[in-house]
Amino acid sequence: MFKPLELFIGLRYTRAKRSNHFISFISMISMLGIMLGVVALIVVLSVMNGFHKEVRERILGMASHATISAVQGGLKDWQAVQTRAEQHPSVIGHAPYVEGQGMLINGQKVSGVLLRGILPEQEGKVSDVVSAIKVGSIETLDAGDYHIILGRELAFVLGVTTGDRITLVTPQVNVTPAGIMPRLKRFTVTGIFEVGMGDYDRNVALVHLQDAAKLMRLQDSVTGVRLKLTDLYDAPEVSRELAMSMGGYYRISDWTMQHRNFFAALQTEKRMMSIILSLIVAVAAFNIVSTLVMVVTDKQSDIAILRTLGASPGSIMGIFIVQGATIGFIGNLLGMVGGVLLANHVEAIVSWVERQLNIDFLDPSIYYISQLPSDPHLQDILFIGSTAFAITLLATLYPAWRASRTHPAEALRYE
User: Fold this and answer.
1) End of a domain among 208, 224, 257?
2) Of 367, 365, 364, which is closest to residue 156 (Cα–Cα)?
3) Are residues 234 and 312 in the same domain?
4) 239 with 116, same domain?
5) Residue 382 belongs to domain spanning
6) How far apart are CA 117 and CA 129, in angstroms?
């Protein structure tokens, strides 16, 4: 892009010991500003990626990658649906489920609940709830025994533990001589799970598939079939392929559709945070502008001499672009290296600070996460580095253009 002359002089101006120490100080501040801006961007986006990953894993620990259900009513031929779905190479697990709303009562304590009927022997193929059971076991859910496993927060609200009996009220009603009566059924608590997401720990209860189907009056039908895929990010494509292969008699959805608004909000938050933190780099770039303007003023005589020796305005402009780009490149490189190192060790650093100050930045009882997660993405790091360098390169154009407009006679008039 530049001739050896421009590179040589520009790099010499950058590393030379200037007589004007104030300009050197401003150059150092500009370099540090770019470095800190890049570090802040990489660390913050890595932590946000870590939080998003934690939330996504906890949601998908109870939800499913994809779901097949009937267009209307229950899914009657769910065994055939499972057989056809498992033929897809991306499907590695499947399990039927029954889902409905209800209300749990223990004495004077009442709480709404999302009742989910499962097959204990198949549920572990599509969710992490089996490993999330803290008290009891998934094997205690036997058909006809009317056992129930509650989320930790739900059990706390109802004031129950394993062995206690609670009453479930369903929206279905019984018509009796005394009038229309809600359906009531007594369940025995045999387990408590904790997945770390308040929506599930507070609102979900698990029962056997046959018990739930009987309560919801589905007979031999189920609400749908849940699927687990080899790669959760392929869920939209796999859902489309399954929909085409199975015809139009089923409703097939995936996790990106079921939680679209939530994940879109997380992505928007990440994007806006990137824009806000980019202002740090922009401020540092303005420092480069002021630095180069002062350098151009300080080097008026040098510019005039170079012009009289035959240097073109483009060569003069190239010299100062090289100088500003060097400051930006060094600050950007140091920021990328420092940001990656800090992002990879942010959990250990935060833990050390918490021990030293005897405080908890993330209270597990509030956030369900006791450690600060970090997940650096290569594409984010490269994007931050290239954007920061582009900003600093743009900041050099005006001072370099001003330098190229210098007239030798005007510059040497008072020399």
Assistant:
1) 257
2) 365
3) no
4) yes
5) 4-57+262-411
6) 13
Same domain for 19 and 89, yes or no, is no
Do residues 343 and 46 make contact, with C-beta atoms less than 8 angstroms apart? yes
Residues 244 and 286 placed together within one structural domain of the fold: no
What are residue 328's phi and psi, to 5 degrees? -65, -40
Q: Give, as one character, the DSSP assignment of residue 231.
A: -
Q: What is the pLDDT of residues 370-409, one digit of tens each?
A: 567 888 888 888 888 888 888 888 888 888 887 777 776 6
Q: Cα–Cα distance between 54 and 60 in angstroms, integer?
A: 10
Q: Are residues 78 and 30 in the same domain?
A: no
Q: What is the pLDDT of residues 140-186, one digit of tens each?
A: 898 888 999 999 989 999 999 999 999 998 877 665 565 566 678 89
pLDDT in tens, 81-96: 888 888 888 888 889 9
**Whether residue 70 is found in the same domain as residue 84:** yes
Helix, strand, coil share (%) of the chain residues, nearest 5? 55, 20, 20
CA atoms within 13 A on the CB side of 88: 27
The predicted model scores a pTM of 0.70
214, 172 contact by CB (below 8 A): no
- Phi, psi for residue 113 in degrees, rounded to 5: -150, 150
How many residues are there in the chain? 415
**Amino acid, single-letter form, for residue 117:** G
Regarding whether 330 and 284 lie in a shared domain, the answer is yes
Number of separate domains in the chain: 2
Residue 184 identity (one-letter amino acid): L
The CB density around residue 245, as the number of other CB atoms within 10 Å, is: 11
Tell the residue number behind the tokens 């006679």, with chain if given. Answer: 409
Q: Which of 219, 234, 257 is the last residue of a domain?
A: 257
